[in-house]
Amino acid sequence: GESVGLHLPTLSVQEGDNSIINCAYSNSASDYFIWYKQESGKGPQFIIDIRSNMDKRQGQRVTVLLNKTVKHLSLQIAATQPGDSAVYFCAENNRGGGSQGNLIFGKGTKLSVKP
Amino acid sequence: ETGVTQSPTHLIKTRGQQVTLRCSSQSGHNTVSWYQQALGQGPQFIFQYYREEENGRGNFPPRFSGLQFPNYSSELNVNALELDDSALYLCASSPRGGTLETQYFGPGTRLLVL
Question: Is any Cβ of chain B less than 8 angstroms from the Cβ of A102?
Answer without folding.
Answer: yes
